[in-house]
Structures are given as structure tokens and as C-alpha cells.
Amino acid sequence: MTLIIKTFPNPHNEDITGFLKQKRRKDFPDVLIIEDDLDEPRLKALYEQCHVLVAPSKAEGFGLPMAEAMLSGLAVITTGWGGQMDFCNEETAWLVDYSFEPTQTHFGLFDSVWARPDIGDLARTMREVYETKPIVRDERATKGKEILLNNFRWSDVATRLVKSAKKWAEIPPIVQPRIAWVTSWNNRCGIASYSAHLVENIPADVTVLASRSELLSKVDGVRVHRCWDAGEEDSLKELAAVIDEDRFDTLVIQFNYGFFNFERFIDFLAEQLDAGKVVVLTMHATIDPKNAPHKRLEKLKSILARCHRILVHTPSDLNRLKGLGLVENVTLFPHGISRLRTSFK
Fold first, then answer.
1. What's the CATH number for 179-332?
2. Is 209 left (phi over 0), alpha (psi -120 to 50) or beta?
3. Among residues 195, 187, 313, 306, which one has the least CA distance to residue 252?
């Protein structure tokens, strides 16, 4: 059995040859490194001589090597996140678990993440596929090939683009949303300050539906309504009534464990979602508090899955929500930095 590593001498990558020389042990398998450019016939021949393509990538635009492998009848092992998920699933490939981490590229993007494949799960998956009967590997590759041939020819892509363009052209002019921002406000609270900085920079009318407080830092403006109480006792009925009365269609809710009774919060969100409201939830904490065992995010996972978007501040938050099965509607939204005016003399 030979492990073939097809790569190229990318200056941004670690020297794979030097790495193997440093790490090689007596029990290492046979490893062949190919850094040469291969023309299409030679690449096709390489696919057809192998048993499986192992592609534990961190990010993909489409995943052309996976598609080429399937079209060549080759089984595929790949990360369970990225562009390849358009055609890679549990029926067409073997998916490796992963965790989110900040990207480490020459672009230097501070607010970008990719998927780090789980090395242990990758090893287990490779062993599983090695021990799997050839007919099972062939079945998954064949299903992947069918999806690609039926949906991903250039003509299919062109048809979808034309269809999308026609659909977008028929969209009526965008009506300004009626936004309600549910938060603490004008008090000594980090979330109140966070909300104030964002609201004052949003180019739309925003009404703040604030929690009641006896210690205000300044007088409320005309677009602030205090209609709920932070803590365990509030049923959130008054908050719901204000939303209904003023016909808000978009809710931006600031979540912290101490703000809401979980059971009542679930009922409130379900009522708003059932009424067709767009719900965007900013989660300022995702670590379950030890002193409140009744407040576990797991209790909220079903209703969180229904929210249109969940914003979190760190990759660790992304991973905690991923642990609950929440990925598709979760987005990294880092804390902002206030603009500072500095003069140098």
C-alpha cells in the first residue's frame, strides 16, 4: 500500500519532503510525493490507479479534485465543510469531522475562518475506507458521479445562472425593514454599549426595545421603548405585544444567559418566527454558566436552528454551536473597533 501525495512547490506551504524526512519512522508506510505538473491523461491515469482520494482540505471553492475523482470512479474522503459539500455527502463520500479556526493565509484576514480537519477522525475514516468492501466504495463514487453529471455540467451551471438572473430581475424594490433591536440600553453593560455603537452606524431606522433599568447612564431617545425585564420572571408578553403593535418585521436580539428565562424565550422566538418575522440573534456568550445548570444552550438548539442568522464573536463560539449541530445559519461577527481620531505633530 502506497500513500501518494500530489502537490506542488507552493512557497506558502510547508516543505513536505523535509517534513517526512524529519518525522519518518521505521514503521512508516511507503510514501510517493509528486510535485510535477501532470497533463490531463497522466492525472486521469493517477486517479484510476488509486483506491481512494483523501482530501482533508480546510476550504474549497468547488472541490474540483473531488469531482474529478468521482468521475473517475474513485472513492473520496474529504472534510465535511466547504464548497465540495454541493456534491459530497454521506451517500457519495466519507466526511471527516472538523473544527473552525482562524485562517492562516498570506491575506491576513482577521475575521475569516476555515475548517481544521480532525486528525483522529481522519485516521479512523481512512482505516474504515481501507477495510470497506470495494463494492461499497464503488457505490458511493457512482452516486457522486451521477450527481455531477446530472447537475454540474457547464450547461447546467449556465442554466442556473440565467434562471437566477431572471428571478432577481423580478424582485420588487426593497422595502425598508422595520427593525426592532432587543437589548439592554443606556446602562453600565457591555452589551448596551455594543448595541449603541452599532445602532448609531446603521443606515436605517432602528427602534430599541430595551430592558428596564433603574440606573440609566443618560436619558432615552424617542425611539427607545422599555418593555421587558432581564432575568427569570418576565414572560416577554409585553415585548411581544409591542412588536406586534408596531408591526416590526425584523428582530435583532442580543442574547446573554442572564437576560431571559429559557422556556419563555423559546416560546417568544417560536411566536415571532411563526408570525413570519426575520430573527437575527447575536450571542454574546456560548459557555454554559456553572452556577445555572438549568441554562444550557442545548435546550435552545431547536429554536436556534429556526433563526435566520446567529452572530457570534469568536471561532470558539462557532465550534460550541457546531457541537449542537448549528452550522448553516451561524456567522462569525467579530467585535468592532471604534474609529479613533489621532493627530500627530
1. 3.40.50.11930
2. beta
3. 195
Predicted pLDDT of residue 337: 58
The SS3 of residue 11 is coil
Average pLDDT for the chain: 92
The reply to whether CATH 3.40.50.2000 applies to domain 38-166 is: yes
Distance, CA of 130 to CA of 120 (rounded, Å): 15
Compute φ and ψ for 99, nearest 5 degrees.
-135, 150
Cβ atoms of 234 and 263 within 8 Å: the answer is no
Burial class (CB in 10 A: 0-12, 13-18, 19+), 78: buried
330 to each of 223, 258, 306, 310, 318, how far by Cα in Å?
29, 21, 11, 5, 7
Radius of gyration in angstroms for the set of CA atoms belonging to the chain, rounded to a whole number:
26
Mean pLDDT of 271-292: 96
pLDDT tens digits, one per residue of 124-139: 999 999 999 999 999 9
How far apart, in Å, are the Cα atoms of 308 and each of 117, 194, 267, 275?
27, 21, 16, 13
List the chain domain ranges. Answer: 38-166, 179-332
Confidence of residue 19 (pLDDT cuts 50, 70, 90): confident
Nearest to 268 by CA among 245, 246, 300: 300
Sign of the torsion formed by the C-alpha atoms of 228, 232, 235 and 240: positive
* Sign of the C-alpha dihedral computed for residues 268, 269, 271 and 277 taken in this order: positive
Given this chain, do its domains 38-166 and 179-332 carry the same CATH topology?
Answer: yes
Judge contact between 72 and 47, C-beta under 8 A.
Answer: yes
> pLDDT tens, 173-195?
878 899 999 999 998 889 999 99
Secondary structure (DSSP) of 130-197: HHS-HHHHHHHHHHHHHHHHHH-SHHHHHHHHHHHHHHHHTPPPPPPP-EEEEE--SSS-HHHHHHHH
pLDDT digit string (tens) for 301-344? Answer: 999 999 999 999 999 999 999 999 999 999 999 986 555 544 43
pTM, full prediction: 0.88
Chain center to CA of 47: 31
